[in-house]
Amino acid sequence: MRQQLPGSGTAGPIEWIEVSPEMTTILGRGSISAAPLPADPVVLSFDLGVAGTQPAVRIGESVDSDRLFLVVARAALLRLGGRDPNVDDGSGYHLPSELRAIALALRDPPLRGESRTVYRLAKSIELLCETIRLLRDSELAPLAAEGGLSVADTGRLMAARRMIDERWQEKLTLPTIARACGLNRAKLTSGFRDLFGCTIAEALAERRLGQASRMLLTTDHPVSSVGYANGYLNNASFARAFGRRFGVTPSGFRACGVAA
Questions:
Q1: What is the average per-residue pLDDT within 235-239?
Q2: Fold for domain 202-259?
């Protein structure tokens, strides 16, 4: 279900999408008095980084600005694996590229008519579930606190993270990432650890090993080919890294998956 409501100011008409009795998506700015909001709602707001603002996702804010909002019943959020927000959640998290892409597709769907409505419903659910997953797995980086990393350096570090997220299959090195993001190696190394709680090498390994684990379960490629496809130049280094991450060899992981 979708409806446009009269907006206010220059932000244009507000739109809402009733995903279910427990969730409503709101886009734009204006009065939401006619929108069907769930009982005991939790608000997830998405600032998409237009007009020079920092892309961010915040939890527990009111619907009072020109952003994209998911208004979800607290009981539904907890049932789906989310956490009950507290007063500190309003500080927000950096919006990663994969969540931003989903939110932009939801805001500006490439379809018309009934298919547009169905598409937006699906994207609303996808955005909620992916946000919950990233929060649960501690993969969302908190926005820099006052007095911490500068906005400019935070943006450069987020660019480094996006580079890893999107180009992890390439031979990425510290000097390569530092040059691409406009940071020296020392600031990149320390800032990345401060912001994301892991090293560059650990972030790359997480991406590569995650994809390798999926390939082991969904393809019959030899283990050595899976390792090479995910950036490991020999089977021994792949097996060591995989064992540290999953506590089992790649062959053992595949065997367990087949048995399950």
A1: 92
A2: Arc Repressor Mutant, subunit A (1.10.10)
